[in-house]
Write a structure and sequence with these properties.
Order of helices and strands of chain A: HEEEHEEHEHHHHEHEHEEHH
Largest interface: A-B, 29 and 23 residues
Structural class of chain A: alpha/beta
Largest sheet of chain A: 6 strands, mixed
Strand content of chain A: 15-25%
Structural class of chain B: mainly alpha
Distance between the termini of chain A: 62 Å
Oligomer: heterodimer
Number of helices of chain A: 11
Radius of gyration of chain A: 20 Å
Helix content of chain B: over 70%
Helix content of chain A: 25-40%
Chain lengths: 289, 309
């Protein structure tokens, strides 16, 4: 008898039983998992310089991320959009030869101060990468992973969370019969939505999306965009994008970057209709890209 | 306008080109087949050479009895098989955690200067001839076992023991396993780590739940490769294992693995026809064990991969 497989099967049966319990009315769809108004945090970047192996990628960047808005970072390739995004939750520190000066303040707490405990800050900031990368586990475990590493073990609560966030990204109806099959078997658009659900499950307040739709087909990327528009009621979304049209469609606030500097930042209408800087005008007209 | 002549010429060259392409393909195929053919030939040769003893005695009797008296015609291979398994087992048991955590440290947590120091050291360790390991085992490990370790457990041990062989063999396998694991872990895209870290996971949680899970099939494959290599390792093990024909009752007893049997005895006593055949059978057993092990792990690997993706 092979014990490990058997125990797994038992676990699954238990999980299914819990599902049926939930269907009896334990679950309230309108239940909000969002944070209280008073405890909402903010991100502020002050004089941030990032250099990788001697190349200055970001030069004296200062900005603030508005809450409950979609902020689009636009600019030509290699202007440091992704680096800025990654600096917001200190993910670039694993690359070789990175030097950072300046401050990124999350709730007035500097990410780059020595000895700061990063994990609880990262929890407030979700990340959606360019290509979807579901973790090598089942769909259920992917969503539950974030809660589990923060110590939530109660299976009923986990079921609730998984169901709620899969519903939030519109994936529940598609996958509810195969929650325990590996996540790698889903289509790529579904995988990206799963990654979004996984990020939402730890209840962040910010969502960083690094060209989150560029690897997807038009229909899937439209779904993701619609999700963003829906999610901005609860979250602040920072989106790096290469396609100006996407920025036009969904942005509330736009940051235009060129050669590692922020050239212009402001509400989307102002930037698109009435850009102040010459560079911004040229970029929007398509003189360079 | 092109004339008819030039047209002919260009057509001719294209035929030659195609022919060359075809030839290159088949020649390369032939070269590839050499290694496969060698495997088959070695196996076949071993079977033919060990036929005489197989005709005289049953396979069961040969594999499952432990009496080894070639002069009287008793050939029991059990002590040798058990010796091989024990030594390999000990080696893998202690090297697996060491190499796994070393590799995780090197790929995940270490600064670049640490890598610059450690990798050349590992390369040197891997490149040392096995005799050196054997001598080192005799000079350092054997006295340590017999003077320090063994008195706590048994009354007397020479130090030439199963445990010594396992330790020395492990040291030889260690660089191989570490480099395989490092290769494996660096093949995991950074995005997986980012995805986990951005949820607020610590590095250790990321390693445990994402990295090790993602690379589990690869880990199984690497360990299999290391075990196959360890089973065949001869000189270093032969120098420290004691070479006593017995079923090892404790870790401090001497043992006699299959490769040591071959290396020690082949070349003498070939006047006994059955003896040579018995030694060939020993080689065949080694061959089959490694073969079956590889096939088995491949099947296991396929099953694991299917369940993961």
């Amino acid at each position: 008898m092979n014990i490990p497989f058997l125990s797994k099967k038992l676990k699954w049966t238990a999980a299914e039983w819990n599902e049926t319990e939930l269907k009896k009315g334990f679950f309230r769809p309108n239940q909000k998992f969002c944070t209280e108004e008073s405890s909402r945090s903010n991100i502020r970047v002050e004089h941030l310089n990032v250099s990788i192996q001697g190349n200055r990628i970001l030069k004296d960047v200062s900005t603030e991320i508005p809450d409950r808005k979609i902020t689009c970072i636009i600019g030509p390739s290699g202007c440091g959009k992704s680096t800025l995004l990654k600096s917001l939750n200190r993910l670039q520190e694993h690359t070789e030869g990175v030097e950072v000066t300046g401050k990124v303040l999350v709730d007035e707490e500097d990410l780059y101060a020595p000895g700061v405990e990063i994990t609880h800050i990262r929890r407030k900031i979700g990340l959606l990468s360019q290509r979807p990368c579901p973790l090598p586990m089942s769909i259920y475990d992917n969503v539950a992973y974030g809660c589990r590493i923060h110590g939530l073990r109660n299976r009923k609560k986990l079921n609730l969370v998984v169901r709620h966030y899969l519903q939030a990204v519109g994936l529940w109806e598609e996958v509810k019969d195969r929650l325990h099959s590996p996540a790698g078997r889903m289509s790529i658009g579904q995988q990206q939505r799963l990654c979004l659900a996984r990020g939402l499950a730890v209840e962040p307040q910010f969502i960083l999306a690094d060209e989150a739709t560029s690897a997807l087909d038009p229909i899937s990327s439209r779904t993701i965009e619609d999700l963003f528009l829906k999610l901005k009621e609860e979250y602040a979304i920072v989106l790096v994008t290469h396609t100006l049209r996407q920025a036009l469609r969904i942005a509330d606030y736009v940051i235009f970057m060129y050669m590692g500097e922020i050239i212009e930042a402001g509400p989307a209408e102002q930037i698109f209709k009435n850009p102040q800087q010459e560079l911004t005008q040229k970029y929007l007209q398509g003189v360079f890209s | 306008m092109r004339s008819a002549e030039t047209y002919e010429i260009s057509r001719k060259t294209s035929v030659v080109r195609l022919l060359k392409d075809k030839m290159a393909g088949s020649v390369m195929f032939a070269f590839t087949m050499i290694s496969v053919l060698l495997l088959i030939l070695i196996g076949f040769g071993l079977v033919i050479k060990s036929m005489p003893i197989l005709e005289e005695k049953s396979l069961w009797e040969l594999l499952c009895t432990s009496k080894w008296k070639p002069m009287r015609g008793d050939f029991g291979f059990l002590p040798f098989i058990m010796g091989t398994l024990w030594v390999t087992g000990i080696a893998i048991i202690w090297t697996l955690p060491v190499s796994l955590f070393t590799a995780v440290f090197l790929t995940e947590n270490s600064r670049s200067w640490v890598k610059k120091v450690v990798f050349p050291a590992l390369d040197i360790l891997a490149g040392l001839p096995s005799v050196v390991y054997g001598v080192w085992g005799i000079l350092v490990v054997v006295p340590w076992i017999s003077d320090r370790l063994a008195p706590h457990f048994v009354e007397y041990s020479t130090g030439y023991s199963t445990l010594t062989a396992g330790i020395v063999l492990g040291i030889m396998v260690l660089p191989l396993l570490i480099s395989l694991f490092v290769e494996l872990f660096s093949s995991v895209p950074q995005e997986f780590r980012d995805a986990s870290l951005s949820l607020g996971a610590t590095r250790w949680q990321t390693t445990k739940y994402v990295l090790l899970k993602k690379t589990f099939p690869g880990i199984v494959a690497s360990v299999t490769l290391a075990i196959s290599r360890a089973m065949g390792e001869t000189i270093a093990v032969l120098m420290v294992c004691g070479n006593i024909v017995q079923l090892p009752a404790s870790l401090f007893d001497g043992c006699y693995p299959l490769p040591a049997l071959l290396a020690n005895n082949y070349g003498e006593m070939l006047s006994l026809p059955l003896y040579e055949s018995a030694l060939m059978l020993a080689a065949l057993i080694l061959f089959v064990v490694v073969f079956v092990f590889n096939i088995g792990s491949r099947l296991l690997l396929r099953k694991i991969e299917r369940s993961l993706t």
